[in-house]
Structure formats: structure tokens, C-alpha cells
Amino acid sequence: MSKFVAAVDQGTTSTRCMIFDHSGQVVSIAQKEHQQIFPQPGWVEHDALEIWANTQEVIGKAVAKGNAQPADIAAMGITNQRETAVVWDKRSGQPYFNAIVWQDTRTDKICDQLAQEGGQDRFRARVGLPLATYFSGPKVKWILDNVDGVRAAAEAGEALFGTIDSWIIWNLTGGVDGGAHVTDVTNASRTMLMDLETLDWDEEILGIMGIPRQMLPQIRPSSDPDVWGYALDGQVPVCGDLGDQQAATVGQTCFGVGEAKNTYGTGCFMILNTGEEIVHSKNGLLTTLCYQMGDQPPVYALEGSIAITGALVQWLRDNLGMFEFSHHVEDYANAVPDSGGIYIVPAFSGLFAPYWRSDARGAIVGLTRFINKHHIARAALEATAYQTREVLDAMRKDSGVTLTALKVDGGMVHNELLMQFQSDILGVPVVRPQVAETTSLGAAYAAGLAVGFWSSLEETRANWQIDKTWHPQMAVDQRAKLYKGWLKAVERTFDWVE
């Protein structure tokens, strides 16, 4: 009898493998960072071969740490940084080019050209997304147009495209020896190439972008009883796949219409479950797939995507050398009672929701001689909370749902100062679950449900437990004043790139 489910979480800065038991508790974890490659301003790349090597390493370590045998593991699920694009040779398994990361802005001219006919929302009615550098379809077009030999290989059926989930699953299930070339509905919904209603690739958009259909993966449910292949020497079924933010939504058991979660990682991503209804945003949010379990109808969501949150703390650490470890930012921020009147708007890759302004660039505003590194550290944390407030306001306008509490997860939720400020600036309680790594847990649930390790969504909901709740303590007029200053600061970042 299998005792565990494994999950691979391939994120923007690291890869981890976690093993969970039936109650959703962590049995073991292994994690490894990978290199961030910045060839020129606005370009962000990863080495897909390094990511695959790290994936194999962390799986091995997590299994060993958990004293598990492959026979003890009922299934394996994958979750991933969603819009990062890889194109590889299916004969050799070698990528033609580095993976182009979701933060990368090199496709701005492609997006502008596509928007000349029909504007930024040209495809939104079908795919739920604006034309933006964030999504992977234009990245594939860039590789086809700029890397020698790739277009010919794609047309000959030799080049495969995938988001990182597809790359990992293909390698896990055999690679050049018949690996499964699949993705799930949530990841496919982030390419700008999938029709939200048919859950199939849109032939017209593929034609407009010049992307050969044969290089695309097969779109499958997030939790799929038709197992795609087997990992760990052919012993562990691979049958669950969710984009990281959707995985966190499943891990937080946000299965009811109107339930929402916010994940604090490299970026920040809030997802609101809208059920089987496709809600088209009028306020700068994305319409996306939430999940699809087996042959059940797909569940949709509204999402607010923020490009830079935890990455701002990493920037203070790595580029400015302000501290040695990211968690030190809280010590610095706690040394002062407030940010001293400054705001940091981290528009390093332009601004995502609700603005979608690729012309914006980062700014620190309100500087005086009084400001020191402690104020900067505090303003960096506050920037995350302000951006989340903007997304929540947009969700309220689109859905008519007034959130009564926000479920939170991800690496930054252990930052007490940030979580209290988040509650203060939203004016609602902020709730952290006992298992804060809900992204991995959601991928585990998807795989485990596919093989019957868990019998139903309700059974997984019973595993969810509160760890801590923060309640708002800020006066209403102070909240309004601070937020008004933030909105003014954001406007200062517009129109920077000509």
C-alpha cells in the first residue's frame, strides 16, 4: 500500500521536491537554486538542462530523506513557473536556446506588432489574456524567428515547445525514449494560444503568430487518471500537473466560488475561483483556468499577477548587497516605525495587473536625507502589500465578491511585519495555513486524486488547518492616506521606456 505522494515544484529561482502523507503533512523536502541569466537589460533566461539536473537531484534527496522506496509513492505531480518557454530537439533532448523566463521583456516589439490590429485585447475574448510580454506564445515566436534552424525543425516535427512542466514531464517519462509531450489546461491557458472554451489550441492565433501546431504539447486535465508515464525507474505514475499559482489554489482548497488565495513568491499572484463560469475582466485581471479534475468540467478563475515582490528583496540582497540572507529584510524593516514617506515601485519588468504597462520602470520616490537602508527595506516589503491591494480592488469590481479574509502562502508569509501590514492595508484578516508550501501540496493533490490516493476534493479540504491569522490594526484614514501615496508613486513609473 502506497503511503505518500511526491510533488516537484519547479519555480523561478529554485526546484524543490516534497513528499506528503495522506493528511497533507510534509514528510520530506529537498531544494536547490538555479542560475538566473541576464544577457542584457530586460532579458531573463534559465538553463533548462540545469533545471532538469536539479530536478533529478532533489527528487533523489527527498525520497532518501523520507526513507521512502518508489513503491511507497502512489503518484507524482508537477507544478511550475508557468509562462517560461523552452524549445528542444526531441531526438537529442537538447534545448535549442535557454528557457525564456516569464519576467523577460524581449517580446515587447512582437506584442506591439500583434496589437496593431485589434489592440492589446485582440485575443482576450478567446484566451482571457492581454497581449503582454509575460505570456509564452510570443516567446515561442521569438525563438522561431531568431534562433537558426528552429523554425525548420519545428515544421519538420523535430522541435518541441513546452512550458517548464512539459519539459520536466517529458524528461521524467522517458525523454528521447518516448517521453510524454503533455501540458495541463492551467499551463496551456497561460500561453495566449489556448481557447478558454474548447480547451484546445486556437488554430487562428497559431497562424497569426506563425507557430506550427505539431510542436505543441497535448492538453490534458490537471489531475489525469490516464497516466502520462512513470518516473523513478518506471515505478511512480506521473499524472498531475498545475501551474504554480493554480497549484497553490488547490493546495489552499479554494474549491468554492468566491474563495481566493494570494501566493507571495518571486512575484505575487492572487487567484479568485469563479467556478464553471468564464468571467471576462474589465479591470486588468486575467481570466484563466483554475483546474480540471479528470473528466469533470473545468473550473475558471480571475487572477491578478504582480511581477516583482520577493524578487525585490533578492535585488536588495544581491544587487545592492544590503544583507546576506533574504530573511534579514524583516530585521532591517523593524528598525524603523514606518518607511519615512518613501515608496518603492518595483516595475523592473514593467507593471503587470492591473496596469499591463511594459513601458513602466522601477522607481523610489519621496527620498529625503532622512532616509536610510532600514526605510528602504521597509518600503520594499510594503510594496508587496500595496500591489496586492490594487489587485484585490480590481477583483472586487470584476466579480462583485467582497473578500472577508485572504488565505496566503509562499515564502514571504513567514515575514510577520509584511503579513501585519498586508492585513492593515487591505482591512481584512490574513490567514496562513499550517502547510505554507501549498504550491507543492496542490500538485500532490492533483496526482493523488488521479490514482485514488485521495477520494475527493472534500477529503483534501479536511487537511487544511490554520497556523496564524493577522487582523487589521491601522486606522481607516491612515490606510487611505498611505494607499493614495502609493497610487501617486505608481503613476511616476509610466512612460519611462520610449
Overview of this structure, please?
The structure is a single chain. The protein is α/β, with parallel strands linked by helices and 498 residues long. It has helices at residues 48-65, 108-115, 124-127, 136-146, 150-155, 164-172, 185-188, 203-209, 244-251, 310-318, 328-334, 373-399, 416-426, 438-450, 457-461, 476-491; strands spanning 4-10, 14-20, 26-33, 45-46, 73-80, 85-89, 99-100, 159-163, 182-184, 218-220, 229-231, 236-243, 260-264, 268-275, 286-291, 299-306, 343-345, 363-365, 406-409, 430-433, 466-470. A 7-stranded mixed sheet has the order 15-16-14-13-19-20-21. The radius of gyration is 21 Å and the shape is globular. 54% of the residues are buried.
What topology does this entry show?
Layout: E1 4-10, E2 14-20, E3 26-33, E4 45-46, H1 48-65, E5 73-80, E6 85-89, E7 99-100, H2 108-115, H3 124-127, H4 136-146, H5 150-155, E8 159-163, H6 164-172, E9 182-184, H7 185-188, H8 203-209, E10 218-220, E11 229-231, E12 236-243, H9 244-251, E13 260-264, E14 268-275, E15 286-291, E16 299-306, H10 310-318, H11 328-334, E17 343-345, E18 363-365, H12 373-399, E19 406-409, H13 416-426, E20 430-433, H14 438-450, H15 457-461, E21 466-470, H16 476-491
Parallel strand pairs: 1-5, 5-12, 9-10, 13-19, 19-20
Antiparallel strand pairs: 1-2, 2-3, 4-7, 6-8, 11-12, 13-14, 14-16, 15-16, 17-18, 20-21
